[in-house]
From TrEMBL:
Organism: Williamsia marianensis
Name of the protein this chain belongs to: D-alanyl-D-alanine carboxypeptidase-like protein
Keywords noted in UniProt: Carboxypeptidase, Hydrolase, Protease
Signal peptide positions (record): none
Domain D-alanyl-D-alanine carboxypeptidase-like core: 42-142
Length: 168
């Protein structure tokens, strides 16, 4: 993989700047932009499902973009620090951002879709691809649940603090 210059949207983490190598994605990233680690490191089954959905969405004039996919632990840690500053406490930040040790983004098992119109399309049609919203407060966040193809999406958690995977 060719190393890239730090993205303009990179955030500072201690002594280094986050870059595309950490999963930082430029605006307008396509689910087919596999030269970007933030897309390429998404679990292959999840990425395959999102790409199938993107083709079908495009046929309806909807452009699914990846706002965030795989993230390095450093990137996830920075997002958590930023959320603590924004929301005033770690407990409130946990409603929006998981720790690097528990994040589905760090493991490549989650993808954030935009713009809002595309996330709404995927929220409506995602189960047929096994793509499900997991949290009521994050309309952009999708994970792969293959049983949703036959059974529909499972009930959503109000926010990540209710998700037993993050509280184990």
């Amino acid at each position: 993989m060719t190393r890239t210059a730090p993205a303009l949207t990179s955030a500072t983490t201690g002594h280094r700047v986050l870059s595309e190598d950490d999963g930082v994605l430029p605006p307008g990233t396509s689910v087919f932009d596999e030269h970007l680690p933030g897309v390429a490191n998404v679990h292959r089954d999840l990425l395959r499902a999102v790409r199938r959905a993107a083709v079908d969405a495009a046929a309806e004039g909807i452009d699914l973009q990846v706002n965030s996919g795989w993230r390095s632990p450093a990137y996830q840690a920075q997002l958590l620090r930023d959320a603590v500053l924004k929301f005033g406490s770690r407990a409130e930040a946990a409603r929006w951002v998981a720790t690097p040790e528990r994040s589905a983004h760090v493991s490549g098992d989650a993808i954030d879709i935009g713009p809002p119109r595309a996330a709404a399309w995927l929220s409506t049609h995602g189960a047929r691809y096994g793509l499900c919203r997991i949290y009521q407060n994050e309309p952009w966040h999708f994970e792969l649940r293959l049983d949703a193809i036959e059974n529909g999406s499972p009930a959503m958690y109000p926010d990540p603090t209710y998700d037993p995977r993050l509280n184990a």
